[in-house]
Structures are given as C-alpha cells and as structure tokens.
Write a structure and sequence with these properties.
By secondary structure, the chain is an all-alpha fold.
Length: about 180
Amino acid sequence: MISSLLAADLWFENLLFSVRTPFFLDVFTGITFFGNELTIAVIAGIVVLALLYFKYRAYALGLMITLIGAGATGYALKVLVARPRPSGLIPSVIETSFSFPSGHATAAMALYGFLTYFLCTLFPGKKSLILSAALLLIGSVGFSRLYLGVHFPSDVLAGYILGGLWILIGSAIVKRVAREEPI
C-alpha cells in the first residue's frame, strides 16, 4: 500500500515537472502565499477581531481552536512522520521542514474552510457561491504546493483531511458555546 502511494506520488510530481513553465511558477508562487504561516496568521487575526467586534464570540473561539489545533497537530505529524520533501530537480523553491502533511494545505483548509462554514451559516442563500469560492481557493493553494514541487499529493491530501477534522471540532465548539451563551 505504502509503495503504491509513493509510486503514485512520484508519478504525479514528475507529470507536473514535465509541464512546468516560468509563467505558471510565478502564478503558483503567488497562490501559495495564501497558505503560508504569516498570511494565515494575519488574515486569522483580522477575522477574529472582526468576529469579536460584531459579537460572534463563539465563531471567534471556534476559529482560534481550529487553527491552533490544526497547526499543532500538523507540526507534530511532520516531526513524527519525518517524510522528506520531493528531491532532485523537482522543487522550484527550497523548504526546510518535513513534507507530511502539507502545512499550507492544512492551514488553508482550516482557515478558509472555517470561514466558509461561518459565511454559509450567515448567508445560507449564497451557499453555492461561497462553497465554490472556497473550493477554488483551498484547491489552488494545495495544487500550488504540488506544482512548485515541494509536496507530494498525499501530503496535500493529508493536510486537507487534518484541516477538515479541525473544522469539525471548531464547529462543534461553536455550537456548544452558542447554546451556553448567546452569539
């Protein structure tokens, strides 16, 4: 099973390497920015402050727990699994941390996924538009990590799953806190 996964990861990475162009390297370098730690922290800080200002305390708490939990779990998994990043000519940028799971995919799923949950709750009539925009953004961040050659597909998929699990935890906390204290 593991060898089949590794073979699939390597095949996909080589496929992307074969279609890499300078133009798309620039495009995906820009897109990957929306999943880096500093960008996520700044956006999350602004969103938490806005949620608190508009009296959505339960959602602010849920978002903070989602992001902190996803980040801490992702970091622990990187250390425990210690999977090296793709090597050779494939990477277009140098990353020094381990590969599994993708921190960008985890953070993008956790932040933008939780925001999607909040916005769909706030604007149920716009659910399709909100979900489509979130899918495009989160999917683009994950794909950018693959195109840049710094992650294997299984790293990105694991990051999405991890971020998604923390969204479930964060949304459960929102529901519990909202029952105890009016939003």
